[in-house]
Amino acid sequence: MLVIACLKQxxxxxxxxxxxxxxxxxxxxxxxxxxxxxxxxxxxxxxxxDSHGLKSVALSMxxxxxxxxxxxxxALGVDRSILLSDRAFGGADTLSTSNVLAAAIRKLGESExxxxxxxxxxxxxxxxxxxxxxxxVRLGYxxxxxxxxxxxxxxxxxxxxxxxxxxxxxxxxxxxxPAMITVVRELNRPRYPTVPMRxxxxxxxxxxxxxxxxxxxxxxxxxxxxxxxxxxxxxxERQEGEIIGDGLNDPIAAARLLLDRLVQGDMLSV
Amino acid sequence: MEHIFFSVLLSLSMAxxxxxxxxxxxxxxxxxxxxxxDQPLARxxxxxxxxxxxxxxxxxxxxxxxxxxxxAFLVLAVxxxxxxxxxxxxxxxxxxxxxxxxxxxxxLFDICSLAVLIAVAVAAVRRSINPPFPGARTCxxxxxxxxxxxxxxxxxxxxxxxxxxxxxxxxxxxxxxxxFASLLSxxxxxxxxxxxxxxxWWIHAVVLLGFMNYLPYSKHMHILTAIPNVFLRTMxxxxxxxxxxxxxxxxxxxxxVDQLTWKDLLDSFSCTECGRCHDSCPAAATxxxxxxxxxxxxxxxxxxxxxxxxxxxxxxxxxxxxxxxxGEGKKGATPESALWSCTSCGACMEACPVFIEHLxxxxxxxxxxxxxxxxxxxxxxxxxxxxxxxxxxxxMAPSERSKWSSQLELRxxxxxxxxxxxxxxxxxxxxxxNKQVSVALTRVLDAAGVSYGVLGREExxxxxxxxxxxxxxxxxxxxxxxxxQFREKGVTKVITQCPHCYNTLKNxxxxxxxxxxxxxxxxxxxxxxxxxxxxxxxxxxxxxxxVLHDSCYLGRHNDVYQPPRSVVQAVTGTAAGEMERNLDKxxxxxxxxxxxxxxxxxxxxxxxxxxxxxxALKPDTICVSCPFCMTMFEDGVKEVPGAGVQVKDxxxxxxxxxxxxxx
Amino acid sequence: MSxxxxxxxxxxxxxxxxxxxxxxxxxxxxxxxxxxxxxxxxGEPVIETAKCIGCVKCVKACPAGALEMFYTPEELAIIASFxxxxxxxxxxxxxxRRSRVAAYKGVWVFVEQNDGExxxxxxxxxxxxxxxxDTLGVPLSAVIIGSGVDHLADTAFSYCADQAYMxxxxxxxxxxxxxxxxxxxxxxxxxxxxVVLMGxxxxxxxxxxxxxxxxxxxxxxxxxGLGIDAKGNLMQTRPAFGGNIMATIMCDRFRPQMATVRxxxxxxxxxxxxxxxxxxxxxxxxxxSSIFTRVLEVITDKGGxxxxxxxxxxxxxxxxxxxxxxENFALLxxxxxxxxxxxxxxxxxxxxxxxxQDRQVGQTxxxxxxxxxxxxxISGAIQxxxxxxxxxxxxxxxxxxxxxxxxxATFGIVGDLFEVVPALTAGVREMKxxxx
Lengths: 270, 663, 436
Hints:
heterotrimer, A: alpha/beta, Rossmann fold, 2 domains, nine-stranded mixed β-sheet, B: mainly alpha, Fumarate Reductase Cytochrome B subunit, Fumarate Reductase Iron-sulfur Protein, Chain B, domain 2, 3 domains, four-stranded parallel β-sheet, 55% helix
């Protein structure tokens, strides 16, 4: 049975800034990293590989340089790493991304049963949290988002029980396999690659699938298959630090002013 | 008849001794290759000074006692040689020598034996009352002391009996034996005296041969290994770590004795168990699991237990059978928590009279944990990822690196146009407190008219912490990048604010083929003050009573002790206040060896101990010369309510003392 | 179509405007019909000018305006002559798109509820939905799916909704993706709304992603601003790249236009008691036996505050050495309680034994990203800053104006925390009382 982690290589967003003068993105030497949430998805597939003997696969759709991300997954111990890369896939939004990933999972499922698909709850560059549900819907898998604990995995009964972390509450949910699970960071602590694994992964094969393998309608992938597009980017209003009131002499007024500012700025609602 | 019997006994015990030594040597040979025979003359000199000269032994309490025993032993070795030779060939003895020489030797032997007897008594009393380390009162230790004492007593007994029985004439050159002679003649009959000669002779013989055969199996193995160990020491300072070759199939770090080098193993046999490393270890002193002596002892025990099996095997079979050097509550293993509590301050190595190198072994075991098992304290995951992705320990955006100097208009480093590269280091660029030091340093450099430039956003972390934490793979990546960058930019002279950067740029990067002239700001400023290129204004009275703290990586690891002191002298007009543990005995702030990035759960925090030591001198200012020390002291001082002490970097003192007119 | 001697309108060639590319992910390469765009290592396009046919697709696709058309001076002259006669051309594709899109009408807000209690964000959405609906001149509908939720229709009307689609069935008692997805898609296919809004909450994002995929439309997540452009399309503004930039996202070729909106971002509208509207009962029969997902247990945090993870908290009140003593953390507890948050601390507070280890924020503790982080008596050593600097809003309270914490703070109060914190607690309490 397969357990699949979907990974995305993203720009290290803390380093992305807009040049205040030219109003363009400063991207000099900004490195690409594995989407931090996805590292937890990957870790969980590895844990299930270790605990239940499942075969683990890492999947990523992206440009050829996303191979680095998949190589890292190999260094951490996945059995297979597959890069989904094609000119036609470029410029994809979440809808067309989930189409490509779902197709790849379907293809994997042809030769071996898929048990679980793990995704990070969202990516740090897009923050959409939509690819996971997209995959679940397209494949008809059970959809379990925001999971912070795997309570039980019953491979005989083909069910999985998880804890979902929602606003102010947790839900314990049981669902049928195959299931698509999006994970939050509290789920686990990702492992660090050993050096022998890193060295081995440098030589290991990252498989590459293009649309030739997936045979998707070119109008349903990439930019053409993306209903949304970005019409404009701009700098957020820079919130310069501001000292409120005279806290030394009139703390009560300062506190009041602060609350007013928070409420007016829709940062706080009581 | 007797001498035939003795000849047989001697041959047997010599053979047994040779075999024992061979067994030990074979065990040492399990270790990996390492070349230690360069600079033979310099090595020989080191051996003379430190092994024969006992320079380090003498530097601590009761060292003199050991010197007495050591030198008396060397002298008595001659006497014992004669003893053994004459045991086989009774005619062959010093009696054949001209009388004055013979008398002189007899006197020497007599006095030395007495000296040993007294020293051994002192040692026994000291061990009982004030043991070198807790648990030092072992049977083994007392047994050895008794054997030595017995040997001396037998020597006197034998000589005394010879004199008393009239075989030898009483001589003023053997006063102690003379006393024994009169003692013996007063309580033994004349015919008994001849027997006594034999008895004492045999006691002497048996104890001597027994002791010799016991040596290889005891801590007194050091009698045999200490001198070669000093000869084979790391020349200069042990301030860097060996590189590793990252190709597939290699083993990284060391988890078993066969993964250590032969010198590491020889070190373990050279340990005299004097406990000085333990005494000087900041981790041990504050209640951590680390005990440098036990790290060595564990290696020795592990080698003794498993070595015989390992030597017969090779390759995979060997690897399978090897018992781990790392583990909790196991004989011959060091607990992980002990390995992680090392601050790499080097105090243990500085204290060791026989130049055992503890730190490389600890780092090798850390390397195993990090690189082979990916097992390390949770906090380090963040650190490693941050270092790899953003080249700084906090994971700050590299674009923020130049933010500290945004008001300063610093020049970028350009080879040919700027003489020095000012390498700020991560703390100097990101940490709020240390950014102030960076600003102060640029003011001082400007005042001295130094031509320098910075790398700004392009500066990378030197990787020091990562290397000391055992992530050599990552350090290798980082160092290669930095070295390539330095080469490309044509950097040859560097000023650093951080002793850790200093050590890495100066000593670690050399292994990557980059020789840099690296100056810590204290060295540079001291030079300018001495040459008059930097003028200070008046004496800084507001600094009040100033206490200086030595940075381990400046002092112990690089012998930079004086420059900070002369700078303080120049600024304040008086010598810096010294803590009890200073210079080469200085106590670490607790942040070295990557401890800066680790929580300190066990025992009391090291920085608290060091701050308490400083506060005992009632200072107004504590002067540091390292950003890590700055953080540790600032934190420590804040914990003492009403301490009223400011912590200042050396550069800040100087900047404060610059003439007000110069900007 | 073309006369033999007619001068063609010059099509020009595309080129990259230096410095503007954001490496969006090769949109330009993806649309180029003749494979004339190669991507550099940095992810920037290199246009093979010789191949370019001037179709302008890449220029249109670029989100950053980093591509433009350029013409030779001769071509520019020809264009100028065209301009005199000119006129807008509308192609067939555009016409078809317009008619398809025109079939969708109305603004919907999905009312998120739990046991019949609506999430506040639902009414924040009806507030902004009202504005959108008024701009478009269409009705605003609330979509209520649940069990025992009839009363929510009136609440929705009181919060600006004109009508409510109501599915009330026991199968919807607890939120599960499958039945809600089926019901939502059923309603969308039947009534064709042009805009569907949901809260960017755990439930909203779970459902929205699924619905958008099934109805094959675009979804913009976590919006902080919504508006309508001149052509009547929804402009969805949201932070991207970790909040370092803002992006406005369009979904003009597909319907419905779906967006999730962050809670607390849109203002809560005034409640109009007694307002009425039309309830449209709907049904979407789904047998329980066909659903393979079961909610076994719901655990609420209330009462178990000690177990709350600072890493996931929305409000954190943190204390450092300035707190002076363990007892003083009670002050922070009170404020945290009022805000519905938790108490965290700096390393020194933990080292001093004032807080348990798992509350430590910073380099060697937890990394947090709450909506509001209130740092009290924390100087702001870098070890601490790296653990909390990504918080949406940072409030610093410290006596020392020079403390580095003020460098990262959104708002700072220079003052004694022992005076300011109780004043804040009292202020929040008062606001709550006024409200109820």
